[in-house]
Design goal:
This protein is an alpha+beta fold and 160 residues long. The protein has one domain: HIT-like (HIT family, subunit A), CATH 3.30.428.10. Helices cover 34% and strands 16% of the residues. The protein is built from six helices and five strands. A hairpin with a 3-residue loop joins strand 1 and strand 2. Keywords: Nucleotide-binding, Nucleotidyltransferase, Transferase. This is ATP adenylyltransferase. Pfam families: HIT. GO terms for molecular function: nucleotide binding; nucleotidyltransferase activity.
Length: 160
C-alpha cells in the first residue's frame, strides 16, 4: 500500500476553534472575502469556493437568508442562485476547461449535506477520468490546484 498525503486537511481535522454557528451566515458578515473564499456577492446570494472540494474548482452558490427549507426560497432567491450558477459555469469553461459539471443541492444529513441547516447549491467541474481508482480504492481525492490559485483564477475572470 502506498501513502498519499493531503496536508491541507489536517488543519480542519485538528481544529478546536471550528465555527459554532453557520459559516454561510458568518462569512458574508465579515470583510474577508478572499480569506473566506467568497468569489462574488449578489443581492440575495453569494458564490463561495468549497474549502474541502470534491474536485478542483468545486464551488457553491448560497442564499444569504438562513434556511434549510428549499421550498421556502423566494422566486427571486431561486432565480439569482441559478443565474449565478450559470455565470460560474461560464467562468469555469473559460478558465479550467471542464468537460462536464455536476450541480446539486443536498437537503438533509441523510442526503449528504455537510451544512444541513443552510441551503446551498454545489457546482462541481468534471473531467473525463477524474473518477478513478483513488476515491474508490483509497478513499482519497486528488486536488491538483490550490484553493488560493483557484480563487485567483476565478476572481480574475468573474464578470464585473
Amino acid at each position: 500500500m502506498k501513502d498519499i498525503f493531503a496536508p491541507w486537511r489536517i488543519s480542519y481535522i485538528q481544529s478546536t476553534d471550528k465555527p459554532s454557528g453557520c459559516i454561510f451566515c458568518a462569512f458574508p458578515e465579515q470583510d474577508r472575502d478572499e480569506e473566506n473564499l467568497i468569489l462574488h456577492r449578489g443581492e440575495r446570494s453569494f458564490v463561495i469556493l468549497n474549502r474541502y472540494p470534491y474536485n478542483s474548482g468545486h464551488l457553491m452558490v448560497v442564499p444569504y437568508r438562513h434556511t434549510s427549507d428549499y421550498c421556502s426560497l423566494t422566486t427571486e432567491e431561486v432565480n439569482e442562485i441559478h443565474n449565478l450558477s450559470s455565470i460560474a459555469i461560464e467562468v469555469m469553461k473559460r478558465t479550467i476547461n471542464p468537460e462536464g459539471f455536476n450541480l446539486g443541492i443536498n437537503l438533509g444529513k441523510v442526503a449528504g449535506a455537510g451544512v444541513e441547516d443552510h441551503v446551498h447549491l454545489h457546482i462541481v467541474p468534471r473531467w473525463n477520468g477524474d473518477t478513478n481508482f483513488m476515491p474508490v480504492m483509497g478513499d482519497v481525492r486528488v486536488i491538483p490546484q490550490s484553493l488560493e490559485e483557484t480563487y485567483r483564477v476565478f476572481a480574475d475572470s468573474w464578470p464585473r
